[in-house]
Amino acid sequence: MRIGALAARTGVSVRALRYYEEQDLLTSRRSPSGQRHYPDGAVDRVELIQELYAAGLSSRSILELLPCVVDGEATPELLDRLSTERDRIDGQIGDLVSARDRLDTVITAATANLRTGRHCKNPEG
């Protein structure tokens, strides 16, 4: 599949796909005219790269972790690294849950105040 088709199927820009190649996260073969052609598995790989970026990993970290994530090949050091990344993500999830719970408390209190006719003052005005 050509780069435009991969971009359309994954929702990732052509520019980002080129960047993934520059970072050795994604590979393509070139046609005689220089067009990139990706294997069928490229869609899954791009989606995985996007998930790892969304989790806060750098391209360097993703490159180091991809062999283990994709092929199940791991050294003890790589498994430690994966565990560290998972723990960091768990911490982020905990922080997000706490923020959501705080917002729920504020929303509940504000809703109750609206029902009783009390309103929060806008701090900007």
TrEMBL record:
Domain of life of the organism encoding this protein: Bacteria
Residues covered by the HTH merR-type domain: 1-68
Keywords for the protein's UniProt record, in alphabetical order: DNA-binding
Keyword DNA-binding: yes
Record SMART domains: HTH_MERR
DNA-binding keyword on record: yes
InterPro entries per the UniProt record, alphabetical: DNA-bd_dom_put_sf (IPR009061), MerR-type_HTH_dom (IPR000551), MerR_fam (IPR047057)
Name of the featured protein: MerR family transcriptional regulator
